[in-house]
Amino acid sequence: MKLRIETPDLNLGVDAGRIVAPGEAETVLTGDRVRPGDVCAHTHLYSGLAPLGMPPPEPAPTNFVEILERVWWRLDRALDAASLRAAARLYVAEALLAGTTTLIDHHESPTLIEGSLDILADACAGLGVRALL
């Protein structure tokens, strides 16, 4: 759908959900606020599934190194293509819903090196977020 957003300062043409340029359009929305998307300069897309039920580490970590060893590095080693794809798609979707349109990812998957960045790139491109991987 093409539309035009009129603000006090400028008019914006929107096509397929992206601001393309000032210009003519089919629908006029007046008074809406438009702001640039947020940038997350440090993220780990593979962590998208973590809140959905990773078992708690035993014993519970007491410092940052133990959190890395007992939580994140375990997850790093457990990743396969399907779980990485699901995690990335969930993370990107939630980021976009929160207004973040650019992500800088710091990826780690020692048992899934070949093709892992392609999986992340596909998830980002498929949902329309800009990414530096």
Quick one: CATH class of the largest domain? Alpha Beta
| Secondary-structure class | alpha/beta
Shape: elongated
Please compute the radius of gyration using only Cα atoms.
19 Å
Strand content: 15-25%
**CATH T-level fold name of the largest domain:** Nucleotidyltransferase, domain 5
Number of helices: 3
Helix content: 25-40%
Largest sheet: 4 strands, mixed
User: How many beta strands in the DSSP annotation?
Assistant: 7
CATH architecture of the largest domain: 2-Layer Sandwich
Counted up, domains total 2
Mean pLDDT: 85
Side-by-side strand order of the widest sheet? 3-2-1-4
What's the N-to-C terminus distance? 31 Å
Features:
Nucleotidyltransferase, domain 5; 3 helices; alpha/beta; 3-stranded parallel beta sheet; 133 residues; 7 strands; 4-stranded mixed beta sheet; 2 domains
Overview of the structural elements:
- The chain is an alpha/beta fold.
- It folds into two domains: 1-34, no CATH class; 36-132, Nucleotidyltransferase, domain 5.
- The protein is built from three helices and seven strands.
- It has helices spanning 64-78, 81-97, 116-127; strands at 2-6, 11-15, 18-21, 27-30, 38-43, 100-105, 130-132.
- Strands 3-2-1-4 form a four-stranded mixed β-sheet, with no helix packed on it.
- Helix 2 runs parallel beside helix 3.
- The longest helix is centred in the C-terminal third of the chain and has 17 residues, at 81-97.
- It is elongated.
Quick structural summary:
The chain is an alpha/beta fold and 133 residues long. It is 33% helix and 25% strand. The radius of gyration is 19 Å and the shape is elongated.
